Here is the input.
Amino acid sequence: MRINYFIPSPRFTNLICYPESFGHYADEPSHSENRTHGLSTYNWHIVRGGKGYIQVGETTLELGQGTGFLCGPGVPQRYYADQDEPWDIRWVHFTAPGLSTLLQGRSEREAWVFSWEGADRLDRLWSDLLATGLHPLQEGEARLSAMLYEMLAEFIMYVDGSEERPQPGMRTKLMETAQWIRTHSHQPLTLEQMASKAEYSPSHFSRQFHGLFGKTPIEFLNECRILQSKSLLISTGWTVKKVAETVGFASSTYFIQRFRKNEGMTPEQFRELRGVHVK
Here is the structure.
């Protein structure tokens, strides 16, 4: 099976990223590419099953389910399917003049090989992109660009190969716990309670939580409370003390301290900035 979609160049040339073509190959043992001078676009593949091989420098790497690679423009490309267990791959060639910060130089000099195991949402987003291949013009250029950017952002956030990132099953449990924390953030939660909800020890929970969200559970809890307080500061005439107590802070002094650290201003200054004047 070889599915190929080719997309017309966008009329608006300043889009951050845009697909040039994309597709899905499976059960194709003859699939092989050898591009000495690469492509003029980025070339991004994810392997969903089977196996294949890619040459990176002088080394040939085997790629199986849950792996993939990204090659920048002009990067030499040599990859091929295994003859006995040909890979099931999804791919997209795209331009990305505005993504240097997001990609952080990865794939510019040689193929970047990565693991995306457990990032199920990435595969679902890829399915959405493939579904547009039949009617790309109906989706619109802005929509196609946005879909590709969402895929790339999801990819960078969850598939960067960091050793600190939790395993797929653990990631799901941490996401569920984070949602529970957000829902119950107005309560006097402790680290031990949050860790118990995830069924981990406090130290292990803190380490894994930080690896996934980039912040400690307590920082996440305070952030949830700050976000809720901003809505109350705008929509009610409550005192700062009442707002602090309602969202879960033990004292208004600590609330003001955390609010200033997060927002760079006091709760009252935030109100003034939003044009809210409390008598």
In short: The chain has eleven helices and ten strands. Strands lie at 2-6, 18-25, 32-35, 42-49, 51-56, 59-64, 67-71, 77-81, 88-95, 112-115. The first strand starts at residue 2 and ends at 6. The chain has a mean pLDDT of 90.
